[in-house]
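USER: My hope is that you can spare some time for a protein that puzzles me. I am handing you a single protein, as its sequence and its fold in token form. Walk me, if you will, through where the backbone shape changes along the chain. The protein I mean follows directly.
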Amino acid sequence: MVRTASAAGSRTGKVVHGTGRRIRRATAAEGAGESGLAKLIELHALNAFGDMLITVALASTIFFSVPTGEARGRVALYLLVTMAPFALLAPVIGPLLDRLPHGRRAAMAMSMLARAVLAWTMAGVVTGGGLALYPEALGVLVASKAYGVVRSVVVPRLLPSRLSLVKANSRVTLAGLLATMVAAGVGGLLHLIGPGWPLRGAFLVFVAGTLMAFHLPHTVDSAKGEQRAVLHAEEHPAGHHGVLHGRNTPAPEPAAEQRPKASLRTVGPSVILALRAMAAMRWLVGFLVMFLAFLLREEPIGGLQPTLALGVVALAAGTGNAIGSALGSWLRPRGPEMTVTAMLLLAGCATAAAALWYGTVTVVTVAATSGMAASLGKLSLDALIQRDVPESVRTSAFARSETLLQMSWVAGGAVGILLPLNGALGLSVAAAVVGAVLLWTLRSLLRVGVRHRPAAPRVA
């Protein structure tokens, strides 16, 4: 028995070691190991793993443990208590992180440590599902978004010469999605032990993430070679091209009374176009999550059990997300405006088809399509922000865009909770909303066009 156990342990160790080597080889491909991007990919996988464990714990308490009617009230209360303060706090995240260009590793580590502490605290109160749980969930949300903002800013600092921004972003995102899928299964197994165990698992994951954040390359905290720009709220005269001034060669300052106020409105029309389209797609995802979650509990598709029906739709959405991230690795880095518009069109068509022919195939299709469209659209939006927005306000741009997208998700979820549980009706409403934004986006695309090079920022 001892020899058998020893042999089994040896085989398990070899499998784990071999899997670890394959993962490291995949994350370090195309120069990512030398540049340090591989370490960021692994850190992001840990981040996604921990967030999913917390999501499993909250979903099992707020959603699955009570009847549908009571669950709708609990979820609505959760959205109200967490998202209303988040709408006020999130715009502060970007400007605050703008002041920490030399402390990005510390900022990422602190976001991990904060979630570790909150996860451990939540493990003691998650069973009751009372109001005491919601402020802690808000803290987790804010810390998670702060990490996301810093991560988006860090990617260009670790970009290998052989990768484009879109491909690097998609590789990071895909690692997070794969980790999320694994974490969903692990969280389910931990929940069988007790409702607090997924949160205790998240505590260990975030502690490891805190330590890993300090192992990122020092270039993450270095501002060497970065360029700064002062945004103008007004257009330059025709024929004048903005110039980025380096840190050691500042541009002449205009008189105080003549200096326009800097504004994120000057991020450019391409970013605004993509942000509007992504807000609609996030609205659709939030709507589908809430509407289908409650609808399929009452009226499962294809004669399946409610839990199985929800699992099939969730698997389709996760697969769509993974496909979108994989496609991002293969797409040419040009024309992200066209990509995000095409994804909005695809999501709108799938939603309209599901409204007209509501059934198992169309519901699974709209879940997969919306997941893919949102994933690939977000990669395109990130690429546009990293391409067109000057370094001095890029963190704020990411923070404010993340806030808008998060609130769009909440708005969609709120509509999904309030609508009657009628599949054709609900999906018709969703198709109408997406269609209206699609027309707006197409009009903007015709006016803006597709730029293959960064727009010259307007500077003083």
The chain has a mean pLDDT of 76. The CA atoms of residues 110 and 282 lie 27 Å apart. The two ends are 77 Å apart (CA to CA).
